## 1
Amino acid sequence: MKKIQEAQTYLKQMHLDGWLLYDFHGNNELARHFLEISKTQMTTRRFFYWIPADGDPIKIVHAIEAHVLDHVPGEKRTFLSWQSLEKEVAKALKGAKKIAMEYSFKNAIPYISRVDAGTVDLIRSNGVEVVSSGDFLPHFTAVLSESQIQSQIGAGKVCDRVVNEAWKWIGEHLRDGKLITEYDVQQKILTDFKKYNLVTDHAPIVGINAHSADPHYEPLKDRSSPIQKGDFILIDLWAKEKEEMSVFGDITRVGVAAKHPTDRQEEIFQIVRKAQKAAVHLITDRFAHKKRIEGWEVDDAARHVIHEAGYGEFFIHRTGHSIEVSLHGSGAHMDNLEMHDVRPLLPATCFSIEPGIYLPKEFGVRLEFDVLIHRDGRVEVTGGEQDQIVCLL
């Protein structure tokens, strides 16, 4: 497999002796992704796949599921008892001093910390130092194919269309004096997703006034507020095309059920928009000069703007997350708050930029679009941009 050779190149660059992939009952979906094991394939026994920096891979599989890695290259070694498992692992790692696994020191980046502490103990008992595979793993799990890139762009365009239709629908109801709730708007968006052949993993967020200050507010049929004239409204929606390997579009917009926003709403909006632009400017500049940029740096760029404006304590989440087949993907997150993400942003990857200011019992502004890094380093915003608050009356 070409990817085995690519992995060995990264291992040599990082001065590692090898990469040990491990899974039990599907708890390491990153390893399974790399090894191209279907999500529907059931495995109930432990297995290891050892990729040395030099030489051929080794497969360590249980006798009951000896076939599980037959599709990948390497010498197969089977085990039955726990004693034989430990013996085969020790034999495979003989001579290795420093290896990579899906591990994160102090669980600093939970998204890549998929190997349990006991298994890491087992590996360390062989005199081996375990480090994170996080710096090179996204090359295999988060990098998008050209068709996936086009699916992401397409999903963003449809999400943009759907949210604009939602604004129009809300405005018509208000002008006609018809009752409309947060839940009604949520359900219309879900209906429109079906109309445009999109799917999602969760219903969108529609929140008014204080609800918009709750980043994960969810309107329910029996717990939803009516939208009335004067209300501030936040809509966060995400969806992707139905094809199996398609990629999500994820956007957030804000509006007011009025002819114009209040001065307070406009002030907060402009600060958040400035923070969003600052993040994209940093990314664009780094890629234009072919310089490395890490997730935490993007978070800092946006957070600095909001902090300097005096609202730092009200920006209560990271600036963005990796996007791929999963809404929250395996690549670098724009985060120096919830975690210090030192992973680099890579060409042919996608992620959100979504700074926010949430004022309890008042309202919250989050502006979200997606950023797609093309293979040549060109930076493209997908899903559309919002430069002013949508006024519905």
Note: The mean pLDDT is 97.
## 2
Amino acid sequence: MLTRYKKQDKVKTWGLALAKRSSHRKATVAVARKLAVIMHAMWTSGTFYCGDPDASVAERQAARTAKARKLLGVYA
């Protein structure tokens, strides 16, 4: 996520700041752990992740609705 993901994301920004203070290896492990915690929380609560800090509430809701429809197989 730190090197290949090109879009803006809160976790990526946090990881890059950590890499500047520490080392890239430590930042990679920290980002992986943070993503694991986020994914576990999403799994247990059934929510969706939107890491774009510039996304509006309406955009987040539209993304959640589209993802829910796709997961349920509702395309109409």
Note: The two ends are 33 Å apart (CA to CA).
## 3
Amino acid sequence: MRRRSRLAVLLAVVGPGLLAGLSDDDPAGITTYSILGAEHGYELLWVLTVSTAALIVFHELGARMGIVTGQGLLGLIRERYGVRWGATALLALVVANLGTTCAEFAGIGAALEMAGIPIGVSVPVAAIGVSTLVLRGGFRRVEHVLMALSAVFVSYVLAGVLSHPDWGAAARGLVVPSLPTTRDAALVTVATVGTTLAPWGIAFLQSYAADKRLTVRDLRPERVDVVVGAALTGIIGAFVVIACAATLHPAGRTIDSARDAAVALEPLAGGVAATLFGAGLVGAGLLAASILPLSTAYAVCDAVGVEAAIDDRFADARLFYGTYGAVVAAGAGVVLVPGAPLIDILFLTQALNAVLLLPLLWFMRGVASDRRTMGEHALGRTGRVVTLAALTLVGACIALFLGLELA
């Protein structure tokens, strides 16, 4: 009976960590991982290992902050550091979120274009679909649909297996560091850190945990949710890298997007692998296109001190729903502009995410260390050391890229 009770508690809280983790494997992330594998083989897989470890640390911290305070990250930054810093953090997050939302719709459109559906049809339909889900559905319905969508990520695991990789080389790449020595390698390293440890995912997780009204008693099972979600992010990303490293890298094939990877996989790994890769891209795009505007809407409301939740009526949460609709419209609209530099938007926004991580994680660490805010759940000595190590890692990646860029 006790085991059943624990399982029931876990099932009741599961959602924030799993959704925040899996949504990091969005079209922009899949593109970044595809380029990593195609251009560098298994060599830089260790970057994904380290990024996933940092993701577990900060996602657990975000969930803890959301549960203990009942507030989102931007609201806590405003309270602790003042309106000016709160506004700066909000502006940085909104800019990054808009660019990444464009990437989500670009990924959906590119994947469905492979099936003969033009972008002019697929992108507006996707935008209307995700907006209807969130604007008209209650909290539970939204969560259940998004959780069902996340099942599509198994397709990347299958695509990786069907590519017949060198498992020994993949295992070495995951644990043996090999420093990037060129500008392009440093850029893809920074982009990998930025897409894995996405600022919007951290902000979404904290606000979503608060919106779900989890309590301190839920901290332990929510940690399980967070660790599983973050670990799956790294596992799925690793299989994307492995699929491209096993097929595209030996053939010398260079790519600009995840769609290119799916098309190139067909003659090298078979039609099934290519189809699975494309199907995963559509599902990943729909999941992230639903969650990214949510992250932005939560952040805007937190920053200005307005309470809002998915279960609120439109009349009671105009700013929340208005922000959600505006982000969806802007993201889909940019993709539909003829000649828009979608590849640059898709890839470079992930490098921008890494740059924005530094101040956001620093603020987050400062709030989490404040016992007046977090009480007994504030960061201890070990937590401060671990979070500082993660911050140092992100800073080192950016410094390496800038050093190679300026050399």
Note: The longest helix spans residues 271-304.
